[in-house]
Specification:
Layout: E1 3-7, H1 40-54, H2 57-65, E2 70-75, H3 90-103, E3 106-111, H4 136-153, E4 159-163, H5 171-176, H6 179-182, H7 188-191, H8 199-214, E5 222-226, E6 246-251, H9 254-259, H10 266-284, E7 290-294, H11 300-303, H12 327-347, E8 350-353, H13 376-381
Parallel strand pairs: 1-2, 1-8, 2-3, 3-4, 4-5, 5-6, 6-7
Helix pairs in contact: 2-3, 4-8, 10-12
């Protein structure tokens, strides 16, 4: 198995930087606070219009034409519409399954957010807060959501698998990302007590989630576990025969490598991919099929400035005011990095690019130079990414 796919980020789980217009007229930085600053009618209208227009049947046709096999769809904990004031989105996921099956794609359902967050990131639903794992009732609620998803889609032809939790942050990444400074909480009182998730909790949760999901899902469908940013920590986990359909998911962004000291040069990035990432992924493939469920071509070199680990524009770090590289120079950087990373994902069990599209205007909005590389559609159109050409 080598899966080639793309994330449908910012469709059913909002990320402000990917679609700034949705947050206009508010100071909300994340999905949790958006409905608190709009009337219920305005909130519902914005969400429903966004969901109906952002991803459509045509996008599944396009993704298939890019020679992709699968889409990873981030979904929120309120997908079933039972957590007011948030609006459920199970009908959208139903449509996605029909489109995927029509055009020969599969879907990895990724539970991307949980109540009070598993990471404190903006994409965890509420910035600067990480308290879900401390609340047994909310942990049980999430297990119930996973059960319902497995029951509804477990036997669908289009299901690739279910991912019980996206990017739970364990101790090392909590420090690397400096979570509560990078993602300042809107309500410091609510954020009090926030802490990284322990590996002990995460292992216990994954075992329970596997049992709940597999009750409703045949063995040929996968349960996909995020590594908690600790790729090498899972060698002794789920090695018994009953867990034959488990995939380990690692998210590998060059901007995180930069935050850990990778030099911002083509040589530095290539060295990181070949000498650090490749040996670790090759080692872990002995224990699980390993996929890279999120990665992209974004890097500081092509932005023309040090983005401080992807913080330019978003966290008060100045972005570039003008292009410092020619079109050809940027193409050379991106194409070289695409080739190296795709070669590595070919050696493991595949990838999902983050993300299919974004609605950020990188031309007219100051500071966003280089951020177009998060958008797979643009990367393909610009010749940075070889999708659809049958080459690697």
């Amino acid at each position: 198995m080598t899966i080639k796919g793309v994330n449908l980020g910012n469709w059913l789980v909002l990320e402000k930087w990917m679609s700034p217009a949705l947050f206009e007229g508010t100071t909300a930085e994340d999905e949790y606070y958006l409905p608190t600053q709009l009337s219920p009618e305005a909130y519902e209208a914005r969400i429903k219009i966004h969901r109906s227009e952002y991803i459509t049947e045509r996008d599944f046709v396009t993704i298939k034409r890019m020679v992709m096999d699968s889409v990873r769809i981030p979904v929120p904990y309120f997908i079933f519409g039972d957590r007011k004031p948030f609006i459920g989105c199970i009908e959208e996921l139903d449509k996605a399954f029909n489109w995927a099956e029509k055009y020969g794609l599969t879907i990895l359902i990724d539970l991307h957010t949980v109540p009070l967050s598993q990471n404190g990131f903006d994409n965890g639903g509420i910035s600067g807060v990480c308290k879900w794992a401390q609340n047994p009732d909310e942990v049980e609620f999430v297990l119930g959501v996973l059960e319902r998803l497995a029951k509804r889609y477990g036997h669908r032809k289009g299901l690739f698998g279910i991912q019980p939790l996206n990017e739970p942050v364990t101790e090392n990444m909590w420090e690397t990302m400096d979570v509560q400074n990078r993602y300042a909480p809107a309500d410091p009182e609510l954020a009090k007590g926030s802490a990284p998730i322990t590996m002990e909790f995460l292992r216990k949760f994954y075992l329970e989630a596997y049992d709940r999901i597999s009750t409703y899902m045949p063995k040929e469908k996968y349960v996909v576990l995020h590594d908690g940013f600790e790729l090498m920590a899972w060698k002794d986990f789920m090695q018994e025969e009953k867990y034959s359909n488990v995939i380990l998911d690692t998210h590998q962004y060059l901007m995180v490598a930069e935050a850990r000291g990778c030099s911002q040069t083509i040589e530095g990035y290539l060295k990181y991919v070949r000498e650090e990432l490749e040996p670790q992924i090759t080692e872990m493939e002995k224990y699980f099929p390993v996929i890279c469920g999120e990665w992209c071509l974004f890097n500081s070199l092509a932005c023309g400035c040090d983005t401080k680990g992807g913080q330019s524009v978003l966290n008060g770090v100045e972005g570039s005011e003008r292009e410092s590289l020619s079109t050809e120079e940027k193409k050379e950087i991106y194409a070289t990095l695409a080739k190296a990373q795709l070669k590595l994902w070919d050696k493991c069990s595949g990838y999902f690019y983050w993300s299919y599209k974004l609605l950020t205007d990188t031309v007219n909005t100051p500071g966003w130079i280089g951020w177009d590389s998060w958008d797979l559609g643009r990367c393909v159109d610009f010749g940075w990414f070889p999708a659809g050409k049958g080459e690697k």
